[in-house]
Amino acid sequence: MRSSNRTDAVVMMKDLRSLLNSLDDEHRLPFLMFYQGYQYNEIADHFDLPIGTVKSRIFFARKKLKSMIQGHYDTVRA
Predict the structure, then answer these.
(1) How many Å apart are CA 65 and CA 3, to the nearest integer?
(2) How far apart are CA 18 and CA 28, in angstroms?
(3) What is the DSSP track for 31-70?
(4) 31 vs 16: which has the higher pLDDT
(5) Could you report the per-residue pLDDT of 39-70, keeping only the tens digit for each?
(6) pLDDT confidence of 5, banded at 50, 70, 90?
(7) Continuous segment of H or E residues that includes residue 1
(8) pLDDT at residue 2 is higher than 80
(9) Domain locations in the chain?
(10) Cα 63 → chain centroid
(11) May I ask the CATH class of domain 3-77?
């Protein structure tokens, strides 16, 4: 990998962490657990929530992140 590609990747990861950290805990924490490989039922048990609520929170975290990423990089390119 060229040095500029690595630099771009590091910057992108910092941007993604920042965007992820801007989510409220209600959505961010289940999303992070799912990303780390936890199953829906494990996340539900951990937070004492119904599985449907966990799925919903992860869905909305993904949707919000996608929107924030698109907005962020559209602004950067402009």
Answers:
(1) 27
(2) 12
(3) HHHHHTT--HHHHHHHHT--HHHHHHHHHHHHHHHHHHHH
(4) 31
(5) 999 999 999 999 999 999 999 999 999 898 88
(6) low
(7) none
(8) no
(9) 3-77
(10) 9
(11) mainly alpha
- Smallest CA-to-CA distance from 64 within 17, 14, 19, 33 is with 19
The rounded radius of gyration (Å) of the Cα atoms in the chain is: 15
Q: Whose CA is closest to 75, among 19, 5, 25?
A: 19
Rounded to whole angstroms, the Cα distance separating 14 from 9 reads 9
Pair 3, 12: CB distance under 8 Å: no
Question: Among residues 74, 40, 46, which one has the least CA distance to residue 58?
Answer: 40
Name the residue with tokens 């989510």: 23
